[in-house]
Design goal:
Chain lengths: 304, 304
């Protein structure tokens, strides 16, 4: 392990679950950040308070071309680790790093409607820590328990600080019925240092069903009371959402007959590149946690 | 089996799943039905079309006294078949026939705010086919797959016709997060004759996790397209809902930290009392399907 880096957010170190203070800002940039698509002060304040923002239909025009790219990709990736399959039904659940396999999707990550906001929230140049497509098939997509992404990225990938944000696009409608993302507003302000330790090669199991790093009932209840309830990320295809790296979120089963499909980009500040994992274990593979911190350059104008 | 009774709705007879026509009316009574709390014509039309109606906060004053009765009952019923427990966590999931064990809850079933509507919808005197409390504990209450209650009551209990309705009271908030009831509006107009046959003593397993009598993806999709989407029964404690016996419904996991608790009364027309089960098997026990068709007499005024 790299002894230069202090562990600001110890977790799964064998002790009991406990709350630790967040020592990082939520919003690292300013409202007058360059970029035509940066958030205004009111939107920044809302993100700071709630830990997420929903921009209804903001990139509607990208949905059809992205879906087309994904269709091509399914064939291309058969048998590769970047493809994750449902434990029961064997249906497609995730594609990791789709921007490696599609030039178009790489451009989507650089579209100023996304990248202006990511650079503003993190107050820095940014790179992609991870990207993925999550498909929850109708009637078969399973629930995912509550978790903070940052807790995993910190422990398993060595991401030092909370200076990352996920920007994601709804490729289908996300409604109360098809397994939408639920969030606890305000939960990003509290860090849950989790009990237990990390099993070796945890990712092979946790991408299907996470167990390490999930809160117990009392912790969850405290967060919900503290944060003032629960929220659902509902919207039509083309809705753009940003959620903070430490916000507690989860999702129920898809009970609808239609899929819930989303494309996620995890943007990380180039000053927050991953070190040795704080678990002391070997790093996860690059398709889950990139170590190439070369900054993304915004496209001059929105993708057509 | 009672050979007098024609099987209008054969299901699980060993063939393929298929759609059969509903031969019964949805609304059996009239808008000018006696009773201060009967539905008006607009409400009746909506029930006829959608197969359910939500009366927000209609019996708010009953919630606290019912909750008090349930607390007492948990102790009283330990070890009895009327108590159903979560498969994984062993927590309370259901109490069957609470009106057997509480005089107060028996009066709730006779409250004119419920009974006037049940008698009107069924156009007859009614009795209780079944009553139950369903608790979905926070973080632990599990999903329940899509099903028509009538399909089970017909096959396993010998209920001849679609002349029953469930009236139920939200004892906690029902929101998108705590495993609410989802319904397919209009699905009560179609009868899904299910594939397969009924395992012996199916109820012992099906109360925990139903498998027989659930639609496949194509059937579900057809219903959702035909009926125009999905609906959630959301509301504050004390909200009263009526849903038709053949409406397709299900519910997701409870991801919230707080329970979702509802009290259900299944009202059946006294002309529609149960015969021998159409499966040809022995009837389910009385706590699941009463054979005592003595009519409920409405209280003179709402419970205090």
């Amino acid at each position: 392990m790299d002894m230069q880096v202090k562990d600001l957010y110890p977790s799964r170190t064998g002790g009991e679950a406990r709350w630790l203070p967040r020592v990082d800002p939520v919003v690292w940039g300013e409202a007058d950040q360059p970029g035509d698509f940066a958030l205004n002060q009111q939107q920044l304040d809302s993100f700071d308070e709630n830990g997420f923002i929903i921009l209804e239909g903001a990139v509607e025009d990208l949905v059809a071309p992205i879906q087309k790219e994904l269709e091509a990709m399914k064939e291309q990736l058969l048998g590769r680790e970047e493809l994750v399959i449902e434990p029961d039904s064997k249906e497609l659940r995730s594609i990791f790093q789709p921007h490696f396999f599609s030039e178009y999707i790489k451009k989507v990550a650089r579209d100023p409607r996304l990248l202006d906001i990511a650079r503003q929230l993190l107050g820095d140049d940014v790179y992609l820590h991870q990207s993925r497509v999550n498909v929850k098939p109708g009637m078969k997509g399973r629930s995912f328990p509550w978790h903070s992404d940052f807790e995993t990225w910190h422990v398993e990938d060595g991401m030092p600080q909370m200076r990352a944000v996920t920007g994601w696009i709804m490729l289908t409608e996300n409604d109360p019925f098809n397994g939408p993302l639920f969030l606890i507003p305000g939960s990003h302000k509290h860090y849950l240092s989790c009990a237990g330790t990390t099993p070796e090669d945890n990712y092979k199991q946790s991408l299907r069903k996470q167990e390490a790093g999930t809160p117990d009932l009392a912790s969850l209840d405290w967060l919900i009371q503290e944060g003032g309830g629960l929220a659902g990320a509902f919207g039509k295809p083309g809705t753009l959402v940003f959620h903070e790296c430490n916000i507690m979120h989860g999702s129920p089963d898809n009970l609808a007959s239609y899929p819930r499909t989303n494309l996620f980009f995890v943007y990380n500040s180039i000053k927050n590149g991953c070190k040795a994992p704080f678990s002391g274990q070997k790093p996860r593979p690059a398709f889950l946690a990139s170590r190439d911190t070369q900054p993304l350059e915004p496209l001059k104008e929105p993708l057509k």
